[in-house]
């Protein structure tokens, strides 16, 4: 049964295409405590996405700002990064990155309605149209998804789409905040928003992006060093000419160069897919990798090969997590990943400290992890009490030690044979 649409206030819509109108819109927004924010950009053929449109909303008006027509947006970005303002987005990673690049910093207080939805009983990650439908009962027309936003003039359908992208942000913010407050999860959401913002604008240097180059599995440390140097060269080259890095040189070509470790221009002659005029720079990158001392080479990442017992325990934790999140009306895939569950099971199996993963930090570590550990450590037993329920399990305290027969089985087949 479709939800009855929430009654929304009809707000005036303003297209901002002159410096004077931009100044008036910025003045209006400077007095707004909460601002909805979205952008339209094209990123397929440039190093950084090209900003084509900015959409913002206050409780009193909607604005579509044309950055091609209204001049510099410096004063606007100052408003967006004002520490006193809450900036509401949906799946706003790229929007925050655009703001960070333009203003040198991201908004201080971000509220992502997609993240909030996962903490308030909706699925995660939920699309904007789905969120608006499920939360507010309104249908959105998403027909302009593949629009080339660089072209002018903008058609009426494009403007309608652009206004709709911020029309529902503040009403969704209000509804979700009410739910989170009722369920005492607003603090959880605020933790998530900080982490989300940090990840969105991080330089990603520590993440070793070069390790994600395809075709480098099985490389030795010297080959990996070449991958690292070539990746850094390619990224700098892409930045310089404002083109996507993989468009300038594909991953498989980069990996092949790192595998061959060429020493001269002749060694590169038989390779296709090299950017014109960059052969010397490529050889210099490889040469830097060749010159590294052994202790400067990157390590080969070990492949995780968990025992069947670890996999079994992680699967058990997954069952408990799904059941627990169903009871708590949480999106389980927002709470923890399979990798998190394996890491916790691995730490318990080897008697080590808990791993530093998302599941062991913040609100997850305080409210979710103890329930999982109670089962993993044998303090709670599971029982199926209502198979037709969305949460069919009951958790029973274990007050007695395992019977001798069960304890023998728990030791494993080798120990049993010795007994």
TrEMBL record:
<dbReference type="InterPro" id="IPR010997">
    <property type="entry name" value="HRDC-like_sf"/>
</dbReference>
<dbReference type="InterPro" id="IPR002562">
    <property type="entry name" value="3'-5'_exonuclease_dom"/>
</dbReference>
<protein>
    <submittedName>
        <fullName>Ribonuclease D</fullName>
        <ecNumber>3.1.13.5</ecNumber>
    </submittedName>
</protein>
<dbReference type="GO" id="GO:0003676">
    <property type="term" value="F:nucleic acid binding"/>
</dbReference>
<dbReference type="Pfam" id="PF01612">
    <property type="entry name" value="DNA_pol_A_exo1"/>
</dbReference>
<dbReference type="GO" id="GO:0033890">
    <property type="term" value="F:ribonuclease D activity"/>
</dbReference>
<dbReference type="InterPro" id="IPR036397">
    <property type="entry name" value="RNaseH_sf"/>
</dbReference>
<feature type="domain" description="HRDC">
    <location>
        <begin position="220"/>
        <end position="296"/>
    </location>
</feature>
<dbReference type="GO" id="GO:0006139">
    <property type="term" value="P:nucleobase-containing compound metabolic process"/>
</dbReference>
<dbReference type="GO" id="GO:0000166">
    <property type="term" value="F:nucleotide binding"/>
</dbReference>
<dbReference type="InterPro" id="IPR012337">
    <property type="entry name" value="RNaseH-like_sf"/>
</dbReference>
<dbReference type="Pfam" id="PF00570">
    <property type="entry name" value="HRDC"/>
</dbReference>
<dbReference type="GO" id="GO:0008408">
    <property type="term" value="F:3'-5' exonuclease activity"/>
</dbReference>
<dbReference type="InterPro" id="IPR051086">
    <property type="entry name" value="RNase_D-like"/>
</dbReference>
<dbReference type="InterPro" id="IPR044876">
    <property type="entry name" value="HRDC_dom_sf"/>
</dbReference>
<keyword id="KW-0378">Hydrolase</keyword>
<dbReference type="InterPro" id="IPR002121">
    <property type="entry name" value="HRDC_dom"/>
</dbReference>
């Amino acid at each position: 049964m479709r939800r009855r649409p929430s009654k929304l206030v009809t707000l005036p819509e303003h297209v901002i295409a002159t410096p004077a109108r931009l100044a008036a819109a910025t003045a209006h927004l400077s007095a707004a405590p909460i601002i909805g924010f979205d952008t339209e950009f094209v990123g397929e053929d440039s190093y950084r996405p090209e900003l084509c449109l900015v959409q913002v909303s206050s409780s009193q008006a909607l604005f579509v700002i044309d950055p091609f027509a209204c001049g510099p947006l410096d004063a606007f970005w100052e408003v967006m990064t004002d520490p006193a303002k809450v900036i509401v987005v949906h799946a706003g990673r790229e929007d925050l990155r655009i703001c960070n690049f333009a203003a040198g910093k991201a908004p201080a207080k971000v509220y992502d309605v997609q993240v909030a939805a996962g903490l308030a009983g909706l699925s995660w990650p939920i699309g904007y149209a789905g969120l608006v439908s499920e939360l507010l009962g309104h249908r959105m027309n998403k027909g302009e998804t593949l629009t080339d936003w660089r072209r002018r003039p903008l058609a009426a359908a494009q403007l309608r789409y652009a206004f709709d992208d911020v029309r529902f942000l503040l009403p969704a913010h209000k509804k979700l905040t009410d739910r989170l407050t009722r369920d005492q999860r607003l603090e959880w959401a605020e933790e998530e928003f900080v982490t989300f913002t940090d990840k969105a604008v991080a330089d990603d240097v520590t993440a070793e992006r070069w390790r994600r180059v395809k075709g480098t599995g099985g490389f030795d440390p010297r080959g990996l060093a070449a991958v690292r140097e070539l990746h850094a060269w390619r990224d700098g080259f892409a930045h310089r000419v404002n083109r996507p890095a993989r468009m300038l040189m594909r991953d498989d070509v980069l990996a092949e160069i790192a595998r061959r470790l060429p020493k001269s221009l002749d060694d590169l002659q038989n390779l296709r897919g090299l950017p014109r005029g960059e052969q010397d720079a490529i050889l210099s990158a490889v040469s830097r990798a060749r010159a590294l001392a052994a202790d400067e080479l990157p390590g080969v990442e070990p492949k995780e090969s968990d025992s069947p017992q670890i996999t079994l325990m992680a699967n058990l934790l997954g069952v408990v997590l799904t059941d627990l999140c169903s009871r708590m009306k949480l999106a389980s895939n927002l709470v923890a990943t399979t990798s998190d569950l394996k890491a916790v099971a691995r730490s318990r199996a080897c008697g080590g400290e808990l791993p530093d993963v998302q599941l062991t930090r913040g609100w997850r570590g305080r409210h979710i992890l103890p329930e999982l550990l109670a089962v993993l450590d044998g303090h709670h037993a599971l029982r199926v009490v209502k198979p037709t329920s969305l949460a069919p399990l009951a958790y029973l305290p274990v007050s007695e030690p395992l019977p001798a027969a069960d304890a023998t089985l728990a030791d494993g087949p080798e120990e049993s044979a010795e007994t």
